[in-house]
Design a protein that fits this description.
- The complex is a heterotrimer of chains A (147), B (238) and C (58).
- With 147 residues, chain A is of the alpha+beta class.
- Chain A has two domains: 33 residues; 101 residues, Beta Barrel (OB fold (Dihydrolipoamide Acetyltransferase, E2P)).
- In chain A, 31% of the residues lie in helices and 29% in strands.
- Chain A contains four helices and six strands.
- Chain A has a five-stranded mixed beta barrel with strand order 1-3-4-6-5.
- Chain B is mainly α and 238 residues long.
- Chain B is built from seven helices and no strands.
- In chain B, helix 2 runs antiparallel to helix 3, helix 2 crosses helix 5 and helix 3 packs antiparallel against helix 7.
- With 58 residues, chain C is mainly α.
- Chain C has one helix and no strands.
- Classes of the chains: A alpha+beta (147), B mainly alpha (238), C mainly alpha (58).
- Chains in contact: A-B, B-C.
- Chains B and C meet through helix 2, helix 3 and helix 7 of B and helix 1 of C.
């Protein structure tokens, strides 16, 4: 083997084992790498709900309501399979609206999620308002058949 | 390959290419900025803030592209000992670091109004921060030794190890739940970005790429000249 | 949406500052290296001339 070939094999093999090692490590730590749990995760997996957690999903259509004091909001976080009712007091991000993604941080007590912070989650669609409107009219909107 | 690895040939080619890449970069930026800031619609959800995407997304693409080039150059330096590959990797690191810094800054400036936070520790944002530190680590390591050859080797190994991070960044939004939205362009189904917004995005991306090539040429030529100076001084004193 | 204008301008401004600084610094280093090399070559030539003259004179 020439020195060049030897270096090539050495680096190739080294890199390959590094890839395998990182793939294994990432799979092992999968549960700590997720930023939030979906309502289905909460219902189906045994997640410790005593400590502060983050749940994420869509704000269920028609579930958003403001209390009389004007700053407490109630809504449901849904992944279209399960949903969890949530309450929150405070300022809301601009993109927070029904049928949009949301990530709430707080804790679960008696089946109700008490959120301390609310983050809006944006989806990967970018389009002008007119295009969105015409898509909705044509019945080709992404959320159309889901609710 | 060997013709390209010859410094004299490289300088000849680079000198001829540079005026083209730099002037085309300027044209792309000019049109990209015009479309991006003035002549593109507001988004149906984000409103005007969508315009931040036209610098954020190209910078993010280029931060990954630059790192891939740097890793490839490092590998070919380690395997074939091409000094030109080492010079390329050394020149790419600060450019990539700048692109990554732009990605992080513009991302925070988009996140605050849209998500409601400057920063979160989700898989995408964290792995991009790691990328930034990989660039900084490369730049520190490459100059950390008295013997420049040793520095090149150590930094090249770091660049190769750090390359594992590139697919992690790319696929983090698909593998894990993240606050960051998934990719819009590599989707095969319905277009996720309207054509009126795609135009400035692609123009800016092309501008970034041409700027990368231009700065890379300038930096590589600088190092080549510095090496010649060193050689001449050594000759004189010896 | 006007309230977010300064976020947009900050994003473009930060990008411009970083890229222009990078480009300007690279060009600056290039110019310095080129000038140094030029001076070195000139010095060498002058020295060569001198030695040539000395050799001729002797």
């Amino acid at each position: 083997m020439t020195p060049t070939r030897r270096r090539l094999t050495f680096i190739g093999l080294g890199f390959l084992s590094l890839l395998v090692a990182s793939a294994l490590a990432l799979t092992a730590f999968e549960d700590t790498l997720v930023f939030f749990y979906s309502p289905s995760d909460i219902k189906e997996k045994s997640i410790n709900t005593d400590k502060q957690i983050r749940i994420g999903g869509l704000v269920k259509n028609g579930s958003l309501s403001k209390s009389e004091d004007g700053i407490t909001v109630r809504f449901e976080v849904t992944d279209l399979k399960h949903s969890i009712p949530a309450v929150y007091r405070g300022p809301l991000p601009d993109l927070f609206r029904e049928n949009q993604g949301v990530v709430a941080e707080g804790h679960l007590s008696k089946g109700i999620f008490r959120a301390k912070t609310i983050l809006a989650k944006h989806d990967e669609n970018y389009m002008p308002k007119e295009v969105a409107d015409s898509l909705k009219k044509a019945g080709k909107w992404k959320g159309e058949n889901k609710n | 390959m060997h013709k390209f690895a010859n410094p004299a040939q490289f300088t000849k080619l680079a000198t001829r290419v540079l005026p083209w890449t730099s002037s085309f970069a300027a044209v792309c930026f000019l049109f990209g900025l015009y479309f991006g800031i003035f002549d593109s619609p507001a988004d149906y959800q984000q409103g005007e803030t969508v315009r931040i995407m036209y610098v954020h997304v190209p910078a993010a693409w280029m931060s990954l592209f630059t790192y891939s080039l740097m890793a490839a150059a490092s590998a070919s330096f380690l395997i074939w000992k091409h000094s030109l590959a080492d010079i390329a990797a050394r020149s790419l690191a600060p450019i990539g670091a700048a692109f990554t810094a732009i990605t992080l800054i513009t991302g925070a400036l988009w996140g605050q109004p849209m998500w409601g936070t400057w920063w979160v520790w989700d898989a995408r944002l964290t792995s991009v921060l790691v990328l930034f530190f990989l660039y900084l680590g490369y730049m520190a390591l490459v100059n950390a030794f008295d013997d420049p050859e040793k520095g090149s080797k150590a930094a090249a190994v770091l660049a190769l190890i750090g390359f594992v991070n590139v697919p992690i960044i790319k696929f983090s939004v698909d593998w894990w739940n993240t606050l960051h939205q998934p990719a819009s362009l590599s989707r095969l189904d319905a277009p996720a970005i309207d054509i009126s917004m795609l135009t400035p995005l692609l123009l800016m991306a092309l501008g970034f790429k041409l700027l990368l090539i231009s700065i890379l040429i300038i930096k590589m030529r600088t190092i080549l000249i510095e090496k010649r100076i060193e050689a001449k001084q050594l000759l004189k004193s010896g | 949406m006007d309230t977010y204008e300064h976020f947009i301008w900050s994003a473009y401004g930060a990008t411009a500052i970083l890229l222009v600084t990078l480009l300007a610094y690279s060009l600056f280093r290039f110019r310095i290296a080129q000038r140094q090399l030029g001076e070195l070559v000139k010095n060498n030539q002058e020295q060569d001339k001198k030695t040539f003259k000395v050799e001729k004179d002797s």
